[in-house]
Write a structure and sequence with these properties.
Elements lengths: L3 H8 L4 E10 L7 E11 L5 E6 L25 E6 L5 E6 L3 E5 L3 E6 L2 E6 L10 E6 L9 E9 L2 E9 L1 E6 L2 E7 L5 E7 L8 H13 L7 E5 L3 E6 L18 H16 L8 H6 L10 H19 L11 H17 L5 H15 L3 H8 L7 H14 L9 H23 L3 E4 L8 E4 L5
Amino acid sequence: MLSSEYINNFLENNLSIDFPEIFISKNLQISEQILLGPGFLTQDLDKNFSLKIFSSSDDSKKIINNETKIGDFIPEEEYLKITCKDLTGNSWIAIVDDVSIKSCKKNIITCKFKNIIFEDQYNERKDHINETKIFYFKNKIKIPCDIRTETKKIIENIEHTSSVRYNIKKISINNLNFIFEKSSDDYLIITVTSIDNLFSPAIELRISEALQFSLGKNIRWEVYQVIKADIEQIKFYPQELTKTEISPINQDCYPNDFWNLFEKYFKYILKDNNQVIHPLTIFSSRIYRFLETTIEVQLLVITTSLEGLIKNFFDNINISDTNGEKKQEKDNIKRTIELIKTSTINEEFQTRVINCLNNFSSKRPVDVLHELKNEKFITEDMIDAWKKSRHKLAHGDFIQEDYTTYSNYYFKLLTLSNILVFRVIGYAGSYRNFSKNGWPNEKFDFLRD
């Protein structure tokens, strides 16, 4: 089993390992060995791994072709597989698909890559324990982990009660048991076990996705440890993420609602394993990746994300036509298209005009928002903020007016995005209304009258 010292050193950007044996293969299918020699791995301040290999032969020139220069990226057809043995005989593996050559002397290769996997076999172990998955999140994460334990003692016929708080939270979702633990170094450690020993193939991503939305923060695990009956595997994957967070829940006031939101989001996205990143996360959480950019970028990202969210998750919303105006509009478009088809306008221009007219008759995101406004959580000023921001930025305009106005638009759209996600996953509870001054805590339940 790998010493916890390795994990702690990695989380402190201080991982360093000596490898008496390093094998490099170029053909991943055949695993053709092209380099053998000792070396060492270090972690730099940018969290990247650097591996220096001292070749025991002159074969190091085969790693890259003659045209490759220092700093070039290795092309896909020349991906490498690195297999190392450390001083205690542990196996380390890295598939080098994101690497640049730092230096290439006669018998020395130095390269950078993003992740490395430790793997160990327990051949002599015969007991079968439940598979356990452990995730380490390094960047400072604030979540409501607080368990109070009380003990009572009778001293001289008087009952004395004392309590101790632990930075731990235990929850169960479906067949999974979670333990969230905040370490003294502000690391978040999540331990997951399965009651029936069955895990979703996408479990490692889905946990990060659910936490990302619940926290309003761009996060991902940096260490992923799997312990089975006969194997231990640890993936080290450095992340350089934004520090800003804007959680939809005020967890200090409503810790139970935070965990309710996490559970609802996690359950919803866990049902779909067909895509690496769940579609809901693609549209809802890309917002958090751009919290530290300009207001133009933030607004463009959030408006396009909202459009994708509406088109992909609210397509079943029927647009009302009380006065028959929309039916009349469709009839007019149909007649106009027929006139264009019988005209002498050239065919290419006809096609362009007809496509534009068909777009007029399609369901627009703004129409869906107006229908959802009847549920009383979406307001007219949110819709107005979306229209003014979307139309301006989609045509390449920069904001030259009052930045405060567009900053307010952004927070209205952030609230709108959160409300739409709440509705999709079926969340009901408190939320922070960023569209109002002071970001008051309000209640959301789209099933209400």
